[in-house]
């Protein structure tokens, strides 16, 4: 049986002994649940040896109710426990002095998706930095990386740090949140008391989940559009769509597993993709679809698109490369429709100057490759492989699980 960090923390009182007499806060959201689907806040409140004094929520709110980016959550008081619940995606994304005064140890129990742009990673970095500055402790109750160990994408370049870019890692980093915490502490030279409560029995390469214990644990959305394991597997590619005018499926029932638009011939697009870089289409099944978003991009318009099926038996874990797959979509659109208004220009995660597609990728390199008529798939593959190889070596010392 696979035990997440929270399950081990609750079951073994010896793990909790160092917390005796200390005020405890919890950073969590709706996916922070036990094997029996009890929320971490309720489970911790039931422990007689834990003094729970505050709670925190990341982007989308501690209740997971905020649908889109840059939709902020307010602070409130938990009606059952009578403790403050602070938002780290509201008036501030940092721990304030008032927040830091409410606890001695912060427990972090967040389900990540294994993608650099997922903002829980940045929130983790911020709380580690803020707690280091005030000599507060941080404990990570570790959870799986549902995308598993594969590495893919360009590393974030210096000067491109943002709330969707916490550090120089590739888009698909292959670490758990606990392992990322170790990397942040080492890279940023943080003088912070921290501890990882690791999982027990987690094997990232085991099928059919390849990172997620598919037969043992229920999936709870860590954010409103992270509806299932298929989304988590595709997300390192489909999140790029947020920087484009193409729909990523918000406003329908399978967001971030597909793309579409009212003015793209998908049959022609797919045929050209297969000619241009057939190896980048491996590991999944592509299916032509039609959909009409009820909100967000192209609302009320019939969109022609492709869904990326990464469910068993259509999924080949080691061959599926979602970042390259969506890069190929953009490149092929640019070749077929040279004047297509592909790149979206709007305020994205509190950045108002740089294009969202560049912010998402952590540099302009992908956009420049797409827009360069002479650039070939091998050109992007070459520079990405350099970054991927460097990251594979860099992350090795932080792996907690065989």
Structure report:
With 402 residues, the protein is an alpha/beta fold. Helices cover 29% and strands 13% of the residues. It has 12 helices and 10 strands. It has helices spanning 5-11, 13-16, 40-45, 97-100, 119-133, 177-187, 229-238, 266-276, 322-336, 356-361, 365-371, 377-395, and strands at residues 23-28, 51-57, 76-77, 84-87, 105-109, 137-141, 194-197, 258-261, 285-291, 303-309. The strands form 2 sheets. The protein has a 7-stranded mixed β-sheet, with helices on both faces. A 3-stranded antiparallel β-sheet has the order 8-10-9. α5 crosses α6, α8 (266-276) packs across α9 (322-336) and α9 packs parallel to α11 (365-371). It is globular.
Quickly describe the structure.
By secondary structure, the chain is an alpha/beta fold.
Category from helices, strands and their pairing: alpha/beta
Number of helices: 12
DSSP helix fraction: 25-40%
Tally of strands: 10
N→C terminal distance: 16 Å
Shape: globular
Set out the fold topology.
Elements: H1 5-11, H2 13-16, E1 23-28, H3 40-45, E2 51-57, E3 76-77, E4 84-87, H4 97-100, E5 105-109, H5 119-133, E6 137-141, H6 177-187, E7 194-197, H7 229-238, E8 258-261, H8 266-276, E9 285-291, E10 303-309, H9 322-336, H10 356-361, H11 365-371, H12 377-395
Helix pairs in contact: 5-6, 7-9, 8-9, 9-11
Annotation keywords:
single chain, about 400 residues, alpha/beta, 7-stranded mixed beta sheet, 3-stranded antiparallel beta sheet, 12 helices, globular
